[in-house]
UniProtKB/TrEMBL annotation:
Species of the source: Jannaschia donghaensis
InterPro entries to which the protein is assigned, alphabetical: Restrct_endonuc-II-like (IPR011335), tRNA_endonuc-like_dom_sf (IPR011856), UPF0102_YraN-like (IPR003509)
Name the record gives this protein: Uncharacterized protein
Source species, domain of life: Bacteria
GO molecular function, one term: nucleic acid binding
Length: 117
């Protein structure tokens, strides 16, 4: 897959995941939110809870899961901390980190609370 094709496939996967969360009753509050240290793919709200979602696309869910690196997890935590500074309860806010896996045919598997700080 070329760089451009891969980039656009990733964007399409993020769109699908955002739609999936919206249909499940979450309010998607940000897409591709950029902080100083990187980007969070999707941020959603459910009541007072904020959910940071890392989206991974590959041929299979297992292959997508294998693409979540330690470096990406650290970046996600750093960006989430920065984003939490904008929330009313700051660093005391209730948050969770989900990983959304998208396979080659567009099936989505959500792993809730996949990452812990």
């Amino acid at each position: 897959m070329s760089g451009s094709t891969s980039y656009h496939a990733g964007l399409a996967a993020e769109d699908s995941v955002a739609r999936h969360y919206g249909l499940a009753g979450y309010r998607v509050v940000a897409r591709r939110w950029r902080g100083k240290g990187g980007e969070i793919d999707v941020i959603a709200q459910a009541g007072d809870d904020t959910i940071f979602i890392e989206v991974k696309k590959s041929d299979s869910h297992a292959a997508a899961a294998a693409r979540v690196s330690d470096h990406q997890i650290r970046r996600l935590f750093d960006c989430a901390g920065e984003y939490m500074g904008t929330l009313p309860n700051g660093m005391l806010s209730s948050v969770r980190f989900d990983v959304a896996l998208v396979d080659a045919v567009g099936r989505i598997e959500i792993i809730e609370n996949a990452l812990t700080a």
